[in-house]
Write a structure and sequence with these properties.
81% helix; 0% strand; mainly alpha
């Protein structure tokens, strides 16, 4: 006779006792908030004039330190001007040979062909001069960022206490929008291209810091012991053993810092006024010139991809040949041939004007035909595109932003949100939450939260109720430390007066992240089951990841004009990359023995996906969610260029007004939101790993 198995003990029932009174408190704050304004909206009385305080302090610092920084600006401008002079004096054919040769040495013939075609395309399109100016900025800023990153990384490796401080600083540096870096630098160093140089050196240093620490820490102990047995001093042990052993990881840091510096230099063109490719794109965007902006954008993409592949190729070669002796005769012969090619091409360039002179404008009429095509396309399809934008905005974006209570109107939805419909909505939400919560308490809680958020929208929820919810959520996932971070973030947004702008940022970012996770998850799942699709996805991901951020605005801006819908599409196309990559990596990385066992017990492909692959890949998938959120938040400041009204726009406006206080506060607000999202997701991953449970059973096993 079969005996009934006892139910597992309810080890987490305390969560139910914690959340039930919290739900009651949130309900009370929401209802009373209709009559007591300060419970629903942040009262002006608690807003502190932090903006004015920071500006006052910044003015004092600038008045005292500006002469020093202006002198430093002049000093840093000299190598950049010198490099610019050299680049413009070298024949274009020589620079092309240099790029082709470096591409060949790093990655072979395929990249060499790409480099040659890209250089010729840049020349023909008339952006050669702008590309050289960009290279002059990158050529000075990258060594600065590498030197700064290596120095800080070495300090973090040698002194653990310094490393803990560096980790916190790096987290803020990588989450604060790039525009926020420019404001104090602009005040100290003045207007001009040096602003971009300094900003890019700071912005691009974190990858080098992290890779330096990781590389120096991962050198095998056997190499260290061998050096010690040879009688090496501490200095020799560091420079002759650790640094060579960490070289592959250091070159990865060089690659990532180079890409970060290139991205930042282009962004800095907004206030630098330098005649580089970034300025060309920005000028074309402001004039709504689709053809010119697209051509300049393609030149940026070429430059970014080429530099990325060359530096990554050298990093890969160093890793593969680390055990071989450097400077072998065949390698020396290749470098000698490369040097001879540079000398010969320089001589030919000086002898023949055709190989030396750069066209002042495009040799091929591409831009104007593209402008004419866009105008014709918009005349024929503008109504359909506008209808698509309107439908998505009114039925998806606006309800998330302002809530169903404001979005449902006869003009938009075709009916009135009457009191009877509102009562039915809340009854349905309560019943559905209770039914789901009886078996899976956390799932029922999420359902109730979605109904609450959908009704009021991100900009209409009670700030006190949302603060209570976030603090208790943080405590449930990560204890007092995470709850304290939640409370600090909410308090910071309130006392700075940035709560409403933060809610707009979260609304736009969450819409983009959800769409990126849905579409990216589907694409990544298909790629995990098909090598052919995986190859295509890898090419698309690499292209999107190396493309500078604001270039992504160009196509959407031309088709949909300025507005939140254009910003949403730009966020999606940028944040979909980690969603695709981590979905595929997580689902592909399952132990084959587990999959084989699941097949033997008769699992269907659907069961294999949702009951085997997804639960086991959950840590990787959750990390993908984390990175998708980070990418979405990073894009907010860029989307300010198309007229969004959120924290990104606050940073951009502060930049245009040189308002250091407003820019830093808005930038810190974005950074805190990013750090809080990161912390909550990490705690969520840790919770699943502790309980050894899948998403399908988490709520049931935790609550009973």
């Amino acid at each position: 006779m079969t005996q009934t198995q006892p139910e597992p003990p309810d080890g987490h029932a305390h969560l139910k006792h914690l959340w039930l009174p919290v739900i009651a408190i949130m309900l009370f704050l929401t209802v009373v908030g209709f009559r007591v304004d300060w419970l629903r909206d942040v009262p002006d009385a608690i807003v502190l004039p932090l903006n004015a305080w920071i500006n006052t302090a910044m003015s004092a610092v600038v008045a005292m330190a500006q002469p020093f920084f202006r002198t430093l600006s002049w000093i840093l401008g000299q190598p950049m001007d010198g490099l610019q002079f050299v680049l413009h004096g070298v024949p274009w054919v020589t620079i092309t040979v240099v790029f082709v040769g470096l591409a060949w040495l790093s990655s072979g013939g395929g990249l060499a062909i790409f480099a040659g075609v890209g250089c010729l395309l840049t020349l023909v399109l008339g952006y050669w001069t702008e590309m050289l100016n960009t290279l002059a900025l990158v050529g000075v800023s990258v060594p600065l960022s590498i030197a700064l990153g290596f120095s800080l990384g070495t300090a973090g490796f040698l002194w653990p206490r310094t490393r803990r401080v560096l980790d916190t600083i790096l987290d803020f540096m990588q989450t604060i929008p790039a525009f926020a870096y420019l404001i104090p630098i602009l005040l100290l160093f003045g207007f001009g291209p040096v602003v971009g140089l300094i900003a890019s050196a700071i912005y691009a240093s974190p990858p080098m810091v992290r890779n330096t620490i990781l590389g120096l820490s991962s050198v095998p102990e056997a190499q260290i012991e061998s050096g010690q047995m040879s009688g090496a001093t501490k200095r020799q042990l560091f420079w002759l053993v650790r640094v060579p052993g960490a070289l592959p990881r250091l070159l990865v840091g060089v690659n990532q810092s180079t890409m970060q510096a290139l991205s930042m230099v282009i962004i800095a063109a907004i206030i630098g006024g330098f005649d580089d490719i970034g300025w060309a794109v920005l000028t074309a965007l402001r004039k709504a010139q689709f053809g010119q902006s697209l051509m300049a954008g393609l030149c940026i993409v070429f430059l970014a991809v080429m530099i990325d592949r060359i530096t990554w190729g050298f990093a890969t070669r160093a890793k593969k040949h680390q055990s071989h002796a450097a400077g072998t005769p065949p390698e020396r012969r290749v470098w000698l041939i490369f040097g001879a090619a540079i000398i010969i091409s320089t001589g030919l360039g000086l002898a023949f004007p055709l190989l030396r002179e750069v066209p002042a404008s495009s040799l091929v009429p591409v831009a104007e035909p593209l402008n004419d095509w866009l105008e014709t396309f918009l005349l024929a399809n503008g109504t359909a595109l506008n209808d698509l934008k309107t439908a998505i905005f009114y039925y998806l974006m606006f309800p998330l932003k302002a809530g169903l209570e404001n979005a449902v109107t006869p003009f938009t939805w075709g009916f009135t949100f009457t009191p009877e419909i509102k009562i039915a909505y809340w009854v349905a939400g309560a019943v559905l939450s209770v039914l789901i919560g009886r078996k899976r308490f956390m799932a029922g809680l999420v359902t109730l939260f979605v109904f609450w958020l959908s009704y009021f929208g991100m900009t209409g929820v009670s700030w006190t109720a949302l603060t209570v919810f976030l603090c208790v959520l943080g405590y449930s996932l990560g204890g007092l430390r995470t709850a304290s971070l939640c409370l600090f973030t909410c308090a910071f947004l309130a006392i700075t007066g940035l709560w409403d702008l933060a809610m707009l940022s979260i609304y736009l970012c969450s819409a983009g992240v959800v769409a990126s996770l849905v579409f990216g998850g589907i694409i990544g799942t298909v790629a995990a089951h098909s090598s052919r699709v995986s190859g295509v996805v890898r090419v698309i991901s690499d292209t999107l990841q190396t493309m500078p951020q604001f270039v992504l605005l160009i196509p959407f801006l031309m088709f949909f004009q300025v507005g939140e819908f254009t910003a949403l599409l730009a966020i999606i196309i940028y944040a979909i990359v980690p969603a695709m990559r981590y979905s595929e990596a997580g689902l592909r990385g399952i132990d084959p023995n587990v999959l084989e066992a699941a097949q033997q017990i008769g699992c269907t492909r659907w069961q294999m996906l949702w009951q085997v692959r997804v639960p086991l890949a959950l840590p990787v998938l959750a990390l993908g969610i984390n990175q998708t959120i980070m990418f979405g938040l990073a894009m907010l400041a860029i989307t300010a260029l198309v007229g969004t009204q959120d924290l990104g726009q606050a940073v951009y406006v502060a930049l245009s007004q040189a308002d250091a206080g407003q820019g830093l506060l808005a930038g810190l607000a974005i950074a805190l939101i990013a750090l809080l999202s990161d912390r909550l997701i990490r705690d969520w991953i840790a919770t699943f790993e502790r309980n050894k449970t899948s998403p399908a059973t988490f709520g049931h096993e935790d609550i009973g």
